[in-house]
Amino acid sequence: MIDVRMRGFRDRAEVAAVERLIDDRLQPLPAESIALTMAAGRVLAGDVIAAVAVPGFDRAAMDGYAVRGHETFGADPYSPLEFAIVGQALPGRPFAGAVGAVGAGQAVRIMTGAPLPDGADAVVQAEAAAEVEGGAKVRITEPVPPGRHVGKRGEDIEPGSPLLPAGRRLRPQDLGVLASVGASPVAVRRQPSVAIVVTGDELLACGSKPAGFRIVDSNSVMLAALAARDGAAATRVHMVPDRYDAVRQALQDAAEDVILVSGGSSVGQEDHAPRVLRELGELCIHGVALRPASPTGLGFLGPRPVFLLPGNPVSCLCAYDLFGGRAVRRLGGRPAALPYPTQVLPLARKIASLAGRVDYVRVRIAGGQVEPLAISGASILSSTTRADGFVIVPAELEGYPEGASVLVYLYDG
Amino acid sequence: MIDVRMRGFRDRAEVAAVERLIDDRLQPLPAESIALTMAAGRVLAGDVIAAVAVPGFDRAAMDGYAVRGHETFGADPYSPLEFAIVGQALPGRPFAGAVGAVGAGQAVRIMTGAPLPDGADAVVQAEAAAEVEGGAKVRITEPVPPGRHVGKRGEDIEPGSPLLPAGRRLRPQDLGVLASVGASPVAVRRQPSVAIVVTGDELLACGSKPAGFRIVDSNSVMLAALAARDGAAATRVHMVPDRYDAVRQALQDAAEDVILVSGGSSVGQEDHAPRVLRELGELCIHGVALRPASPTGLGFLGPRPVFLLPGNPVSCLCAYDLFGGRAVRRLGGRPAALPYPTQVLPLARKIASLAGRVDYVRVRIAGGQVEPLAISGASILSSTTRADGFVIVPAELEGYPEGASVLVYLYDG
Q: Which domains does chain B have, with CATH numbers?
């Protein structure tokens, strides 16, 4: 590859080719074993099979009285049936009567979740029963067939049954299910670490006030939040001056799974990152047929991807979401696709584009229609805060006519 | 309010009444000031107005050469125009020529983001220029009208303009915009802290293996993940035995903004939480016309809400999402509504319900249709891992017929 500095990009790679390169070169990271209490949102590394039944025993599904169901037939509010209360069963504290089982005409006071006593096969709920004679007996006003209000052993989970598949992003209730079968620790994909290398002599650190001809770095805080959204473990921000040796040192020092370089990626004389990457590893892509992120590069340091993201904040957002984020998501075992909710809506005004180039068009949604934002400048980050989302115009189209149904990616979930 | 233990609920509160009570009693927590680097996903406490212009000066939008635009008219590849290179402008390092301005026939080598030198009003991009005579001159092959490839002062953000409204949940790019105007620290809503009090003698801590008649607590790990999703700051899990004094002590000790009690909330003799809450504060609701979460309670300790959630895990999930989560979301300044993406789809099979009761029905989506899951037991947590989401049947309906269009809340975002 030749040096493109100050000469412009000759051939720009197609967006689809960059995506293929990412997918081909990157596989999900190895598994690690973590406590279930830390596993919300993590990605299962393997299928989980239930080792035990849940529940492990027949149990009451209601508060009430455990009885032999057929003995309750005929009970109603006008002719209640009486049973002798011979004990009680509480969760974790089963009934332990003298004979160990519920006999004819007997009932055991039982709480939801308590083991069903031997002999009993149904539960009369508290609402259909009233204790009398100081709790010695209970009057039942509703019949319950055998099995009623009883949770059978294994009714939730059968031992040996597949519980959750590899690749599952763990929902809150998944954690509950895994806890109930004792599946902690759990094997999940390791989360990729991300280095964010920000170049630019003009940049002040996030948190500073802009002053004179110096501006505040806005990309690192945005990239850190995007990477965290995509499942990155830790992000480290490293600000370096626009000097060849500083950029080289920063890339040599970066031990992270993914390296995002913001700025210095284009063809200007201060754009050292492409040269450094070519020297230290591979520069596979430099220049992408993508508006507004054409000065994007992708290479590798050994197996680890390095993304050269444009310094312009909108381009940076676009290039991260399409490429850098794809790598973070893929390494962490998440779906590679853009992690935004989508909606199909009609276009209020046409979108013009060039064939052969993918366009990332910020849009607003008003009155159920999609309005492209007039401001297309790559430096206008506020356009992405005013926008509700974006539309991707594929390379094979020259835009979309007014009224066309388009897929909108919504910034807010 | 009377003691309902072992007598069942007389009147169950309507779901809408519980929601109204939450909305009436709870207001967003006060603001706190945090560093922008910590603010992803946080909720803005007030409107943010830009204090400065972004950019703060006219700057190059491309790498290339700053010139007087009208002097380039007529340039084309066959008759390029030559300009004398009199210096360069880099980001943060403006052009400082002897006369301080770009004169007739002169050009300044300029990088994207560099301040536009005085005298110049346009930038010729690098691709339309070639340096000659060892960099003393540049040949320009494309005309640029004044203003071309120049980012004007304030073109992204005008000083005094409203940037982001109060209540905004900060997107990654919002952080970038706030960084660029130097708005760090930023005032956001304090995140509510949440205590999770789990009662049950039969329960083993999450991470244990189920053994004998003891089962593993699955609600606390689920509730902690749900609360974190809804913006809770920290959650603390406290497991207590089914004893009046232990439950009382746990509620007295809980200093958190929201208290979730899992289990012991119903009308069984071991259900101490309602009585304790009535004694220590207020028990406003006990029993809700909601399936499968009817044994739900809501009260307050001073201003702090206490939710009595059923121990059955599906009921617990349902009651948290509708009520407990609503409180967490509201206190943190988020929208009170359920935080799931939704889709309207036709029902593959009818859903039966009772008028006067809200039903939470787990469903799968197959072939673009909504299939209610046959298993309706409140204890079958695995039904919520097999389900794609749920449908809420409002109190005024007796279910939905086959083919009806229903709103599905999707568990996965």
A: 15-29+190-331 (3.40.980.10), 34-51+163-189 (3.90.105.10), 59-151 (2.170.190.11), 342-410 (2.40.340.10)
